[in-house]
Design brief:
single chain; 252 residues; alpha+beta; four-stranded antiparallel beta sheet; 7 helices; 6 strands; globular
């Protein structure tokens, strides 16, 4: 059936015993959510401090694992998304918010539901997709900082990232490898890692970077699609899009 793994053959069962260990990600605890909500509320209050329109402002927050570090990404997102978010005056006077485990945009908005929809629309237009990394929580609109915890609980995701989960499984595997009675260890269900970069072919050419020169800068240590190449000796690959208006973006 579709999605089934490859066929595996085993022999020499004799007195063999099998042990199956399932490693899953628990949901984030209420204590951690409360602490993160407090940090988000403080950041919102600090951003709105002294503004005459503070009671008209709303904040779009995108939480993600604290282990992920995105310094000043809020300012980058503000520059990228502000023109789209500000259409028809829906979201204006936008300021960026950065913190440990979250990024946000704060601005004057009238309708929370319309703002939520517009955010997803602008992300799709600017970045080419409206989907987020599996470790990133869904965006949430917070108007009153006092409601941050309740709003955060509505989108709370898993406690650990997929990278941390993979590290846990690898630790278990290495521990079992040293057991004399263990002869074979199989790991299934892990997610492959992939980095997609969308770019403007016109802007890339303006820097004098061509596909041929990019391929010659680094050995072929990865196995990308045939139409992709790795630029500037990096470990990520560039793949052309049919829509060349999308600017260069990287996802981690």
């Amino acid at each position: 059936p579709r999605g089934a793994g490859p066929i595996q053959f085993f022999s020499g069962f004799g007195d063999t015993a099998a042990l199956m260990v399932t490693v899953a990600r628990p949901k984030e605890s209420d204590v951690v959510i409360s602490l993160r909500a407090r940090a988000i509320a403080d950041a919102i209050r600090q951003t709105r401090g002294g503004l005459p329109d503070a009671n008209q402002r709303a904040t779009v927050i995108v939480p993600f694992p604290i282990s992920v570090h995105l310094p000043r990404f809020g300012e980058t997102a503000r520059g990228d998304l502000s023109p789209c978010l500000g259409r028809d005056g829906l979201f204006t006077s936008i300021k960026s918010i950065d913190g440990d485990g979250f990024v946000g945009l704060d601005g004057v908005a009238s309708f929370d539901s319309a703002l939520q929809s517009r955010v997803m629309q602008c992300v799709r237009e600017e970045y080419g997709t409206a989907s987020f990394d599996p470790d990133v929580w869904s965006p949430v609109v917070i108007r009153n900082p006092a409601d941050a915890e309740a709003r955060l609980k509505s989108v709370a995701s898993d406690k650990y990232s997929f990278r941390e989960l993979s590290d846990f499984v690898d630790l278990i595997r290495r521990g079992l490898t040293g057991v004399p009675e263990v002869s074979k260890i199989l790991i299934s269900g892990d997610l492959p890692q992939q980095i997609n970069i969308e770019y403007s072919q016109v802007k890339l050419a303006a820097y004098g970077i061509t596909r041929a020169s990019s391929r010659s800068l680094a050995p072929a240590t990865l196995s990308p699609p045939a139409e992709c190449w790795r630029p500037m000796a990096r470990t990520s690959w560039c793949c052309p899009r049919a829509n060349s208006k999308a600017r260069r973006r990287s996802a981690t």
